[in-house]
Amino acid sequence: LFLFIKLLRQLIKNGITEDELQFAKGNFKGALLADMQHSENIVTYNGEEYLYSNSTIENIVPYERIYEECIHPIHLEEMNRSIKKYFTINNMCVCILGEDLPSKKIVEGICKKII
Q: Is the pTM of this model over 0.70?
């Protein structure tokens, strides 16, 4: 728990580096390429996007273009701005599982120290 809190604090304070962003983008791209080996993934995604988005087929980003149109354009400044905007105490939800759990008061105290 404390290691996780420390990592969150560092992330909020310092953001991520360009190398970390590129690494994450590369992982996403690799997973997407692996998923594209199964045509049912492509069909399911494209069908659900069309059905649930209330949009025309021309306005939907096809599965094959997700990385190029949605992920590749993300810049470091956008990521770090998003981290500061969304990683707040008001957006936090904590779930701790195990046998030896700390009290709710202790967890709340730790979480309040994040920001």
A: yes
